[in-house]
Amino acid sequence: MIGRLNHVAIAVPDLQAAAAQYADVLGARVGAPQDEPEHGVTVVFIELPNTKIELLYPLGENSPIRGFLDRNPSGGIHHICYEVDDINAARDRLGAQGARVLGDGEPRIGAHGKPVLFLHPKDFNGTLIELEQV
Amino acid sequence: MIGRLNHVAIAVPDLQAAAAQYADVLGARVGAPQDEPEHGVTVVFIELPNTKIELLYPLGENSPIRGFLDRNPSGGIHHICYEVDDINAARDRLGAQGARVLGDGEPRIGAHGKPVLFLHPKDFNGTLIELEQV
Predict the structure, then answer these.
(1) Number of domains chain B contains
(2) What residues does the VOC domain cover (chains A, B) (predicted)?
(3) Are B133 and B86 in contact (CB under 8 A)?
(4) Yes or no, beta carbons of A50 and B50 under 8 Å apart
(5) Is A27 in contact with B80 (Cβ distance < 8 A)?
(6) Nearest CA to A120 among B67, A112, A97?
(7) CATH at residue A25
(8) How far apart are CA A15 and CA A59, in angstroms?
(9) Nearest CB partner across the interface for A18, out of B13, B50, B125
C-alpha cells in the first residue's frame, strides 16, 4: 500500500535559524518560507535528491504544532508522510485492521492540496504517520 | 553537503509486531530481522521506493536505544540519516560552524559498515542526525 516517503516534517522553534542551518551548515537546498494559514504552519522545504524535509513553524493561534513545541522546546521530528495511490482504499484497509485514523476518520485536504489521513501514533510505534494520495 | 535521505530509524517496543504491521496494515516490503551485536540493535528494513525505514529494537545490555525506549515506551523516531560524499569533509565543515558531533568527534563505522557521524540533537532542532558516507 504505502509507496514513497514523501517527506519528514520537523517542528522547529526558530524557522529562520533552522533554514539557515540546513543551508549553511548542512549545505542543503533550502526554499523560501511559505505561510499555510489554513494549516496553521509556515513551512520551509529542504529539497533532497530523493525526498523532502519540511521545517514547520507555528502560524496563528491554533497551530497544530504549538503543543508539540511546548512539549519539545528544541523542536523535533513531528511526522513522516508516506504516499498512497488511493486514500479511500487506504482508509478502508486501515479500518479493517483496526488502525485508528485521527479526526473523523475521513480524508481531508492536506498542506499540499492533496487528500491526506493521519494515523494514531499510539498505534504506530509512537510515530505520527501521514498518508498522502499522490 | 548532504545528499539523499538514507533512512529514517524508528525505535519500536515489539519488533515482530512492528514488522507485521508495516507488512500487513501498511502493505510495505519488509525484510527479515538482522542482529547487529556490535551496534546493540536488531534491525528490520522497510524498503520504500525512494528510501528505507529502519525499525530498531535493543540487542544486548548496552543497547544505545534502550534509554530512548525507556523514555518513549510506545517507541518513536530515533534518528534520520543523510548521505554525504566525504565524512571527513563533513566533520571539518561542521566543526568550523561550531556544530557538535557526538562521541569523540571522529567518524566511526556505522551499522551499514560505512563511516558515520552523529550530530548533537540540541544543535539540530531536537533531531538526532546521522551522516553516512556512501
Answers:
(1) 1
(2) 4-134
(3) yes
(4) yes
(5) no
(6) A97
(7) 3.10.180.10
(8) 11
(9) B125
DSSP summary character for residue A126: T
Rounded Cα–Cα distance for residues B51 and B47 (Å): 7
Report which DSSP code applies to A101. Answer: B
Please indicate whether, in this complex, the C-beta atoms of B28 and A2 are within 8 angstroms of each other: yes
Band (A112; pLDDT cuts 50, 70, 90): confident
CB contact burial B101-117 (16+ within 10 A = b; e otherwise): beeeeebeebbbeebbb
Q: Give the cell for residue B29.
A: 516490503
ipTM over the 0.90 cut-off: yes
Q: Which residues of B touch A55 (CB under 8 A)?
A: 125
Give CA B106 to chain center in angstroms: 17
Mean pLDDT, chain B, rounded, equals 95
Cβ contact A124:B8 at 8 Å:
no
For residue A17, give every residue at least 6 positions away whose Cβ sits within 8 Å of its Cβ, in sequence order, or none: none
Q: Find the mean pLDDT for residues A49-60.
A: 98
Which residues form the domain of A36?
5-133
Task: Give the mutation candidate from A15, A54, A77 for the B interface (greatest B CB count, under 10 A).
Answer: A77
The string of pLDDT tens digits covering residues B39-50 is 999 999 999 999
Q: Is there a contact between B120 and A13 (Cβ–Cβ < 8 Å)?
A: no
| CB neighbourhood size of B133 (10 A) | 17
Cell numbers for A77, please give them: 521530528
pLDDT of residue B11: 98
